[in-house]
Design brief:
Elements lengths: L4 E7 L2 E7 L5 H10 L5 H26 L3 H6 L57 E6 L4 E4 L3 E4 L24 E6 L4 E6 L1
Parallel strand pairs: 1-3
Antiparallel strand pairs: 1-2, 3-4, 4-5, 6-7
Amino acid sequence: MGTRGLKVWRFRKRYFAFYNGHDSYPEGFGQSLVNSIPTDPEEYRVWLEEKRQMVHKWDVQYEQYLSVPSHINEKQPKLESSPGDVLWTESDDEAPSLTSEDEPEPGLTKPEFLVEELSPSFIAPLNDVFIEWIYTFNLEQEVFSINNELHYYFRTIPRGRKWFGKWSETGFGSVSTILVLYCRARSRMTTLQV
């Protein structure tokens, strides 16, 4: 019931992770994510383009959120000083300060997708004691990954319970690493035990 996980979108090498607080098992949350990928070629093309636009929008919003608006830099006094000079003190009336004009513009406020403690990253999120399952939609290479170990192309992911049945349990109860490669030219699956 309290199995935690992440749904991750990867686009332009940046990962956007979203927390799922319960039922993150492959049979529950994982299955619903797989079912969200259309099987019809035309619906798939539209879905993929919509998801890429959605994540691109997040990327732009995040970059704006991290940036200092140029008009703030223009308002700062240009000071000529030498190392060790005291430019102002706390009681100095001349110290530069932000005014109401310097508040972020409406488009530069905290993006809506940053509602949790998970900031976008160029590093893939990893499992830990608190996050047991990670499902990644790689929108560049069109690959769905589970725990950064099992990978399927969006178009050829098995449907039903077959998609997560490829894993084998080790004696310690953890999932062994399996890499699934699809040979597009031959349209067959090759599985390598790593």
